[in-house]
Model the fold of this input.
Amino acid sequence: MDNNILNAEMVQNELPTRFIGHKIIYYPSLNSTMDAAKKEAQWGAEAGTVIVAGEQTAGRGRLQRTWFSPAGGLAFSVILRPNINYLPYMIMLASLAVTYGVRSLTGLKPQIKWPNDVLIGEKKICGILIENDIRKNILRHIVIGIGLNVNLQLSQFPEIAGIATSLSDQLTRQVSRSEVLRSVLVEMDKLYSALPNGEILLHQWKNSLVTLGQQVQVNMGDQIYTGRAESVTENGALMIRQKDGHLVQIIADDVMLK
Ligand code: BTN
Done:
């Protein structure tokens, strides 16, 4: 059997979720699942709809980066329509869903690098991109894009091998992309049900953050902040204690663990 298989029917078979993944649209190849999901959302797709691609030809990452998305990876976007008050929790929900989904399926123990990279050891296994459509203070939809390195042999990609890893490299075997997708959707659905108690998500997220307590460097435009990552606020912002004792609040940018 092909372990790299990605099959929407397999993912949906008796899927124990309230609503996430009840509709899954699969494309063998897409530019980006973000664009396809946005279109579906604008056409009225129901919350929980998932767009998944066998590969992406123009995958995109945070901060205008490109996201490398070959056929061994898992690239998908989930359309959600939460209450606008839950917006700060979406980063937590997405990164925890990946962390728990990977852990329950494989036994690996991923951790989260603030705000939403998922690492195994010091290497990135998953990136998350969140795009919102908010008009006149009304949240129309949010799209959570997840790119997970499932069956990639990083030694073949020396340009990212130093910073990235994959499930297959970690486990020295291939993993079914359908099973990974299913596992992440199940965890996301559970976490979504916990949103009315947002502090539970915040607590779980804090416990999974590898960043807290570490010396970090953050680049925000021309400004560089360095210091100790001390805590996160209830909105998910990172508090950094600088050498001179000042505490700065970072909303969402890129943090280097020093
Ligand atoms: C990052 O780490 O910068 C975020 C990467 C997000 C990649 C995913 S793959 C599925 C979805 N489609 C995209 O084009 N990007 C996201």
About this structure: The mean pLDDT is 93. The radius of gyration is 18 Å. Residues 32-34, 56, 59-62, 65, 67, 69, 75-77, 117, 127-129, 145-147 surround biotin (CB under 6 Å). The CA atoms of residues 75 and 147 lie 5 Å apart.
